[in-house]
Amino acid sequence: MKRLRRTRLLALGVMALLFGLIASPTAQAAPAKTAAAAAATDCAGSWDGKTYWAKSPSGANGGGYARTYWDSSTKRNCAKFWSSPYDGLASHITLYLYSEDSDYAADPPQEHPANYHYYAGPLYTWFDATGQCIHLGGSLVRGGVTYRLSTGDIRCG
Q: What is the rounded distance in angstroms from the CA atom of residue 81 to the CA atom of residue 65?
C-alpha cells in the first residue's frame, strides 16, 4: 500500500510540475537534469558538501535548501536555493548573497521581482572572495508557510 501511495504522490507531483509549466509563463522551466546536476552546471566550481536548510516558523528544516560552490580559478563563490522536494509547489523563492561588509546580490533582483517556483540563483560573488566570508539569506512559501534561509558566515577563505 505504501508503494502505491508513493507512486500516486510522484504522479501528482509530476502532473503539478507539468501543469505549472504550461499554465504559468513566468515560471522557470524545469531542467532535464537532477537538481544536483543543474547546480554543477549553473554554479562553476566545487560544492563543499554542505546543505543549508530553510526553516519553518517552528524552526524545523524543510521547504527548501541552498548550496554554495567555490571556483578557485575565478576566486568567486556561487549560491543556489532550491524548493524541496523539487516539485514546483513552492512560490516566491528569493535568495540573497551577502559580503562581509553587508553588500548583497539578490535573485530575483528587487527591481525585477518574479515568482520563482523551483529555484533562485545562481548568484555569484562580485569580488575576489579569497579569505572572505559570505552568508546567505532568503525565503520561499510552501503550502502557505514561509520558510526562511539564514546562514552565519560561511565559505570563509
A: 6
Query: Is residue 78 scored above 70 in pLDDT?
Result: yes
Rg (CA), the chain: 16
**What is the DSSP annotation of 8-22?**
HHHHHHHHHHHHHHH
Per-residue pLDDT of 106-129, as tens digits, reads 999 988 888 898 999 999 999 999
Is residue 82 within 8 Å of residue 38, measured between CB atoms? no
Beta strands 104-107 and 145-150: pairing type? unpaired
Peptide bond into 108 cis (omega under 30): yes
CA 144 to chain CA centroid, Å, is 18
Residues β-bridged to residue 141: 91, 146
The pTM for the full model equals 0.72
Q: Which of 88, 107, 87 is nearest to 97 (CA)?
A: 107
Cell triple for 120: 533562485
The grid cell for 22 is 504550461
What does the alpha-carbon distance between residue 149 and residue 63 come to, in Å, rounded to a whole number? 10
